[in-house]
Structures
1.
Amino acid sequence: MRFFLSERDPAQLLHYGDEVQVTPLNSCCLIVVAYDSGDVYAQHCAGSDLSNLNNLFFRSDALEAIMVSGPESEYQVNQAHQFQLHPRIRSAVLHYYAYNWENYPMPVVKVESTGKLTLESEKSYHLVCY
C-alpha cells in the first residue's frame, strides 16, 4: 500500500511492502525509521525541525533510518547530525539523502519484505557524508 504524507500528518505506521510518499521537499524532510521489533514509522518533518517529530522516532531499538531532503544545506546536515546523535537512537544506521537538482521530486521510501528501507529513484539523490 502507498501512503501519501503531508507535513501536517502525524507519524504513520508502515508494514512490509508499504511505500510512503511525500509532497516535494523544500525545507522539509521525510524521515523513516525501522525498529528491531519490526515497527516502521514515517513522518514528513516540517521545516526539518526534529522537535516536530513524534517521540515514536526516538526508541532505543532503532536499526535503520532514512532521511530525505531537498538540496543539501548546512541546516539539513545539522538536522541529520542532531537526529543521529539523539541518545535514544544513536545505534541506528542513518542514511541521509539530498536531492541533486532544484525541482524536487516526491520521494518514495519502501519497506522491503526483509524489513530493509529503500529509496525509490535513488539516482536522483546523493548520500550525504557528514
Note: Residues 84 and 90 are 6 Å apart (CA to CA).
2.
Amino acid sequence: MLRVFNAFQFNAVFVAWPFLIGWLSEQETGWSGAAFYASCIAFSVQFIIATACVSKGFENVTEL
C-alpha cells in the first residue's frame, strides 16, 4: 500500500511542477529567477528518475 501512495505522490508532484515553474517565471521578486532555474533543473532530474523507474519496471515484465 505504501508503494502505491508513494507512486501517487511522485506523479502528483511531477504533474504539478510545471505550474510552479510557470508561476515562478512570472514573479518579480529577488530570488524568483534563481528559484525558476533551480526548479527547471529539479524537474528535469525528476523526469530522468521517472523514466528510469518506468524502464526498470518494464524489465521485470516477462509477458504481457
Note: The helical segments are 2-26, 32-59.
3.
Amino acid sequence: MSGHRTPAAVLQAIREGVELGWTYQDIRLATGTSTGVIAEVKRTMGRLRPVRVPAPTSQYASPGPTEYFQAIHDGILAGYAREQALSDRVALLQTRITELESQNSDLTDSITQTRARMSNWVGPTPLPHRNLSTGG
C-alpha cells in the first residue's frame, strides 16, 4: 500500500464491494482508492495470490524486440485505462456537482422565503386588557 493509511471505513467498503463481486473500477469509483489498495485488501481476504518475486537466475536473458514492444503496448493500454477511469470519475463528479448546485439553489430559495415570512410576521393578536378582579 502507499505511504498513507487508508481509513478503516474505506477498507470495509472495499471488502463489501469485493464480497458483492464488484469490479475494480466500480470499487475505485465508489471509494476513491487505487487498484493497488483494492488488490491488497483482496489479498488479505484470500481472494488474490500473494505477490511473489521471482528468484534471480544465474543466466540473464536479454529481452528481445517482441518483449519490448509488448511492454510498450501494455503500458499504452494501461495508460488508456487509467485515462478512461479518470474521465469516468470526472463525469461522475460533474454530475454530482450539478446535483449539489441544484440542491443548493433549492435550499437558498427556501431560506430566502423563510426570511421574508419572518420579517412580515407580527405574532398573535394581543388579548384585550381586562381587570379580572372587578369582573370586567
Note: The chain has a mean pLDDT of 85.
4.
Amino acid sequence: MIRRVVDGALRGSAPVVFGGPGMGKTTLVEAAAARLRESGADVVVHEHADDDDQPREAPGVVCLRSGGIALHRALVRARGERELDGRRVQRVPLVLLQRRDLRAWAAAAGYLFAESELERAFRGNGGHPFVFAAWLEACRYTRVPELLEARVVEACAPVFARIDRELAHPELAPLWTWLEQARSSGVDDMQRAIGATKPALDRLAIAGPVSRTLGAKAEISVACELYLLHRTR
C-alpha cells in the first residue's frame, strides 16, 4: 500500500488515503512521505479530521492527504474537478487486514499464538488495525478469552464511538441497520433490497466494521464482532 502511494506521487498523482476511524491513515501517509523524502521529493502531509470535507491546497510540493468519509463524499460530488494542486486525484481506500496480515503482525511483535487464538482474534476484530493492536496490548495482561475481549472493547471505546457517528449519517444508517441484521449479503442483493448505491457501499466499507469482497461474487458483511458487542452495551 505504501508503494502504491509512493509510486502514484512520483508519477504526478495526488494520493488521497481514505479510511474510517483507527484504520491507520496516519501511519500509512507518514511512512509514504518518509520514502518520498528519501528520494529527494519535497513532501507535505495534510491530515483531515473525520468531518473535514475541504481538501487544503499545497501548490508546488507533493502532498499526501488522508481523510475520512466526509472527504470521500466531497470528492465524489466534485466529479468535474479531478485534480488537486494540478495533479490527478489518486484515491487509496484502506481495507481491513486479512488473516495472514494479523499472523505476520503478531509474529513481528514477538507473539506466537495457536491458530485457534488467532482465529478467535480475527473474528473479534475483523482485521481492523486499531482493534487488533488493542488485542495485542491486552494479551500482555491476560489470555483468558472473555477477559481479553472485555479489555479490548474498553480500550476501543473512543474509536467505536467515532464509528457510531459515521454509521449514524442519514446515507449510511439504513444500509448499516439492514446489514447488521443480515450479517452478510451479496452486493447485488443489497442493492435490490434497499437501493444501495456503489458510492454508499464504498463509504459503508470505509467506515470500519464492514468487509467487502469484489469479483465475480461480490459480497459485503459485518466483520468486527467486538464492535457489535460494543453496540449492545
Note: The CA atoms of residues 202 and 212 lie 9 Å apart.
